[in-house]
Every structure is written in structure tokens, then in C-alpha cells.
Write a structure and sequence with these properties.
The protein is α+β, with helices and mostly antiparallel strands. The chain has helices spanning 47-51, 167-191, 194-228, 347-355; strands spanning 7-9, 15-17, 107-108, 114-115, 124-127, 132-134, 145-147, 152-154, 162-163, 242-251, 266-277, 292-303, 305-309, 315-318, 326-329, 333-338, 365-373, 377-387, 390-394, 400-401, 413-415, 418-422. β18 and β19 (390-394) form a beta hairpin.
């Protein structure tokens, strides 16, 4: 006897072979709902607020049941609106991110996500004494003092230019002068003739004149030596060779900005405040003498940068950041000049002084600012280092000496660190890079 295949009939009258399919129990599904506009407020973002344990805010505090639906929609957890609830309304707390969120701590973005700090990039600025940080949301024209990390070298001292003379020569010279004085005084007392005094003055006066001349023109002689030093070609430079490279500079990973004029993308910036001291006036520093200009405040920064050699076209990384010893020779320009006839201070200058807690007295002041902008022509003197076809220029461990310049009657002078010179004027055009 054959086995009978079971059949079943559909509601339309059609017969199908096999047993009818049993209906499975379906779980309730959430209907597609529109999410109201939150404007970056985590309290109105539902599930995101629950993740950070922030109490959610109901977008509709007095919900009305929909007449066309048999079962009312309840808002639990996530703030949702049913399909028949109409268009979601915006609350007064929504909108773009306000400036009050510039402080530290987690900060919500308009998308509902959180960041660990303020929005914006660039150097961190501290305005006044409240420690407020500012990024791109800071007001235009802010004179906040920049605070850089360890990658930027702060040059707190002036470039030291000294005489490169051995101690033995100095001691021999002092002994000869002392002996000459003793013999001259003894002969003048014994013989009682003025010729001895004239001869003694003929020996001492040239020595004093030579010393004063070197003190006054030593820096100028050093700059002349640096300009006349021949340029080297990076392509043929060997590891450990001391070279002078001239070319166009570009910023490294940390571009700098001048503090007063706000010149962007610089590799070196300096801002100095000078005050003039008259008879009985205030001293800007302990070494300030009367009837001269003294430095009251100074800030100089330099970071790693690149230089493209004019001769070979190769590019090298100049290691000037991370506390390197650098000797920059950049002539600053006067940007603010307060005289006796013109003592009115501009709002920008007053803000700059207030941010650095400097007094705004009625003295004679000058604010000088210098910088090396990206695209400027610069000469760098340092030691070449090669590592895996990567060229770097680092400061020399030995001071750079000029040697005796007999034609100029100058003694050997020296300077320590990475030597940086720039002949471009602050107002001149630079090469676009």
C-alpha cells in the first residue's frame, strides 16, 4: 500500500503538498521613530546619555495619546517620538556649541561625541592669570602668552660672544704689563724724568685701546666672519663635517607664531620690551645703566625646521628644538615706540602688557619683534649627521672661533651652539613654499 502524501489548502482555495507551516511567535519590534535635534547636549541624546550615566531629558514633558493608534507610545530611556507625533521641536538648550565649553574636561561635540579637551589646534595660550586655554575659538586679536611644549627651545639668554684667547697668553700679558708698570714707576722716582712716564703711557695706552676696540666691534667682526664663511654643498658633505648651508626654510612639525603681530608659520620668533633709564629712573634689569636702554622682558622661541640647500637642492632637518643650544643673529624691528611726546598706549599693546603682568607706567618703552618666517632665506652653521639617507644639522659640541683678524685688529672671538643668520628684512617678501 502506497504512502499518502499529506496536502493542505490555502485560504485562496489552492492545494499544496506537505503540512501547513506553523506560525512562530514574533517578538515585538520597535517602529521607526525620528530622533529630535539635540544640538550636542548629551542629556537629550538618549542612549549616549545612559552610557555616561547622565539623566535624560524628555523632549515632550506632557505627551498626549494619539487617537489613531490603539496602544500609546511610552518614552523610556531614549527620547523618541512616534510616527504620528508630528515634527520634533527644538529646545532652547540646543544649538551650536557655546564658548563656555572651552575649559578642561570632557566636551560634547554637536554630533554627541566627547573630546578630551577644547576644540582647536595650535599652541596653547594662557590669557592672564586664570589659566584659561584657548584654541581656534579664542577671540580675534588675543594677546595671550603662548605656552609650548618640550619640542620648542626657549632662548632665555642673549647670544654670548667671547674672546678665544688661551689662559697662558693672558697670564703672560698681565705679568708683562705689571712688570712694565713697576719698572716705569721705579725709574720715574729714581731718575725724576718725564720721559719715563711718556714711555710707560706709550705701552699701556695701545693695550687699553685694543681691548676697548675688541669689546665694541667684536660682535660686528663675528658677523663679518659668518658672512664670509664659504657655503658647503649638502650632497658632498660627510658625517661629522662642520658646514654652512644657505637656503629656504620650511616649518617642521611645530610652527611658531609671533606674540604681538601674530605672524603665522615661523621657525623662530622673538619679542623684547626695552625701557630707557634716565638719571634716577627705574632699572629694567640689575645690569641696566643710566642713559641707556635696558631689556625688561624677553621671549624667544625656536623649533626644528627644514632647510633646502641652494646649491644641491637637498633638504635637511635642522635640530634646533628640544633644548638645543642655538645662537640666532636676527635683527628685530621696532613695532611699538613710546616716547615723551607720544605716551598713548594702543589697546593691543595694553593687552599684551596685561597678559604678561608688566606695568603700564609712563616710561619710555620700545617693543621689538623679530622672526624668521617660512620661505625666508637663512644660513645655518652646524655639524652634518647622516642616518639612513636622512640629513640632519645639529649644534657643534665645540665653539666656533673666528681666529685673529689682523687687518681689523680683532682678537679671536667665539660663539657656541647652532649659528643661525637671516639677512631678510622683516617687511620683505618671502619665497612662497
Amino acid at each position: 500500500m502506497g504512502t499518502r502524501i499529506p496536502t493542505h489548502q490555502l485560504s485562496s482555495g489552492l492545494y499544496l503538498s506537505g503540512r501547513p507551516e506553523q506560525l512562530k511567535e514574533r517578538h515585538p519590534t520597535l517602529s521607526s521613530c525620528s530622533v529630535p535635534y539635540t544640538g550636542g547636549d548629551p542629556k537629550k541624546s538618549g542612549e549616549l546619555a545612559k552610557m555616561f550615566e547622565i539623566p535624560a531629558v524628555d523632549s515632550n514633558p506632557n505627551p498626549k495619546p494619539s487617537r489613531s493608534s490603539s496602544t500609546p507610545h511610552q518614552n523610556t530611556g531614549s527620547v523618541r517620538s512616534g510616527p504620528n507625533s508630528g515634527q520634533a521641536t527644538r529646545h532652547s538648550g540646543s544649538g551650536p556649541l557655546s564658548r563656555k565649553s572651552q575649559g578642561s574636561g570632557p566636551m560634547p561635540l554637536p554630533t554627541g561625541l566627547f573630546t578630551s579637551g577644547p576644540i582647536g589646534s595650535g599652541p596653547i595660550e594662557v590669557s592672564g592669570g586664570d589659566g584659561r586655554r584657548s584654541g581656534n575659538l579664542d577671540r580675534p586679536g588675543s594677546m595671550g602668552k603662548p605656552v609650548y611644549g618640550s619640542g620648542v627651545t626657549s632662548l632665555s639668554e642673549e647670544v654670548k660672544v667671547g674672546f678665544r684667547v688661551s689662559r697662558a697668553v693672558v697670564w703672560v700679558f698681565l705679568v708683562v704689563v705689571a712688570m712694565t708698570l713697576l719698572i716705569g714707576v721705579f725709574l720715574m722716582v729714581a731718575v725724576k724724568k718725564a720721559v719715563i712716564l711718556v714711555a710707560l703711557g706709550g705701552v699701556i695706552v695701545p693695550v687699553v685701546v685694543l681691548f676697548v676696540w675688541n669689546c665694541a666691534c667684536g660682535r660686528r667682526g663675528l658677523l663679518g666672519f659668518l658672512r664670509s664663511y664659504p657655503d658647503a654643498e649638502l650632497r658632498g658633505a660627510i658625517d661629522g663635517q662642520y658646514v654652512k648651508v644657505t637656503g629656504v626654510v620650511t616649518c617642521g612639525s611645530i610652527p611658531l607664531e609671533s606674540s604681538y603681530q601674530r605672524v603665522p608659520r615661523c621657525v623662530y620668533v622673538s619679542t623684547e620690551l626695552y625701557e630707557y633709564k634716565g638719571l634716577g629712573g627705574k632699572s629694567a634689569n640689575p645690569k641696566h645703566r643710566c642713559f641707556s636702554w635696558g631689556s625688561r622682558y624677553s621671549e624667544k622661541y625656536i623649533a626644528d625646521f627644514y632647510i633646502s640647500d641652494f646649491q644641491s637642492g637637498l633638504r635637511a632637518l635642522v635640530k634646533a628644538g628640544y633644548g638645543a643650544k642655538v645662537a640666532p643673529f636676527v635683527e628685530p624691528a621696532t613695532v611699538v615706540d613710546v616716547t615723551k611726546d607720544n605716551k598713548e598706549l594702543s589697546p593691543n599693546f595694553l593687552g599684551w602688557l596685561a597678559d604678561r603682568k608688566l606695568p603700564t607706567d609712563d616710561g619710555i618703552m620700545r617693543l621689538k619683534e623679530g622672526y624668521i618666517k617660512e620661505g625666508s632665506t637663512v644660513s645655518v652653521m652646524g655639524v652634518v649627521r647622516r642616518h639612513d639617507n636622512v640629513l640632519t644639522i645639529v649644534p657643534s659640541s665645540e665653539p666656533v672661533s673666528t681666529g685673529c683678524q689682523w687687518f681689523r685688529c680683532l682678537l679671536p672671538t667665539y660663539v657656541e651652539g647652532l649659528v643661525l643668520t637671516c639677512e631678510d628684512n622683516q617687511n620683505s617678501d618671502v619665497i612662497p613654499v
